[in-house]
Amino acid sequence: MTTLTLPKWNLPIGDGRKLFCILGLNVLEDMDLAMATAAHLKEVTAALDLPFVFKASFDKANRSSIHSFRGPGLAEGLKILAAVKQKFDVPIATDLHEPGQAEPVAEVADLVQIPAFLVRQTDLVVAAARATMRHEGLLHVKKAQFLAPADCRNILMKVAEAAKPDMTILCERGSAFGYGNLVVDMLGIPEMKKLGAPVTIDATHAVQLPGAKSMGELGSAAGGRREGVPVIAAAAVAAGANGVFLEFHPDPDKAKCDGPSCLPLASAKALLTRLKALHAVAGA
Fold first, then answer.
1. Domain DAHP synthetase I/KDSA, which positions (predicted)?
2. C or N: which end of the chain has fewer Cβ atoms within 10 Å?
């Protein structure tokens, strides 16, 4: 399996490497929250000697309701992310939704993320791949809820033909299972790794209840099962995942987006300590 490296940061991801940690907020709310969250997560990961990429979205375009909070938008959001990057000397991950966002996003983000629902949008994938290549970053591509693990081969081929091979990290985030529910098949993680790309687990969004407040109860915002995040993360690391994608908030119940699926910021140290130990045992 290919080991990839963020060249500007010398941070590798792949088998035999340290557990790669993409950690942060679901969505940017304001500068102070971004700074406080990044400071805490950098302190925790530094103490554990784990590679850390700070993640936050500038826009949550895929919302259940037109009234849902989406974030500060492209210009203000990238300004906040650039400030976090400069202050804490950490790489940045964020997602994009339109081809025209690729260049400005890749200027700031070292890890450019393709959302799960958009992985088959050729124009977006091509634009993101080319912009990310120009700025010497990597792509973080989430497997869609409707794709089988083997289908990710087509995504890797598309990126390779549009830009270059060996620049994509694949991300498992669950598959649609009936209405308002997701499940994660841990057998998919080694299947995706067979394609030659490192694999991460988005344990946060894997516990979402899309379009439902709770099991069987439809709502105007996605629900979630916060208590399941450590379970999914631990199982995926044991199954060979090379990295974890986790979202935190100082007070998840007051988070402006996807609060039911994110973890309290204070829980980061204990969870990452456990995941690091599991990763060592798994030997991935």
1. 11-271
2. N
Set 59, 110, 202, 258: catalytic member: 258
Q: Are the CB atoms for 80 and 34 separated by under 8 Å?
A: yes
Share of the chain above pLDDT 90, in %: 81
Q: Measured between alpha carbons, how far is 28 from 12 in angstroms, rounded to an integer?
A: 26
Between strands 11-13 and 20-27, the pairing is unpaired
Q: Which CATH number does the domain housing residue 53 bear?
A: 3.20.20.70
Q: Which two tokens stand for residue 47?
A: 């103490």
- The dihedral through the CA atoms of 46, 75, 224, 178 has a sign that is negative
User: Which listed residue (18, 26, 95, 256) is catalytic?
Assistant: 26
Q: Which of 47-56, 252-261, 267-276 has the lowest mean pLDDT?
A: 252-261
Neighbours of 108 (CB within 10 A): 20
CA distance linking residue 170 with residue 184, whole number of Å = 14
Q: Give the C-alpha separation, 179 to 211, whole Å.
A: 9
Tokens of 274: 């456990």
Confidence of residue 63 (pLDDT cuts 50, 70, 90): low
Mean predicted confidence (pLDDT) in 91-114: 98
Residue 60 is among the residues annotated as catalytic for this protein: yes
pLDDT in tens, 66-75: 777 788 899 9
Q: Which residue in 44, 25, 81 sits closest to 262, CA to CA?
A: 25
Residue 283 lies in a domain: no
> Does the structure show a pLDDT above 50 at 260?
yes
Does residue 239 sit within a domain?
yes
pLDDT-derived band at 258 (thresholds 50, 70, 90) equals confident
- Residue 170 domain boundaries: 4-278
* Structural domain includes residue 284: no
Whether the pLDDT of residue 218 is over 50: the answer is no
Catalytic residue among 18, 55, 60, 256: 60
AA identity, residue 80: I
Question: pTM, whole model, 2 decimals?
Answer: 0.94
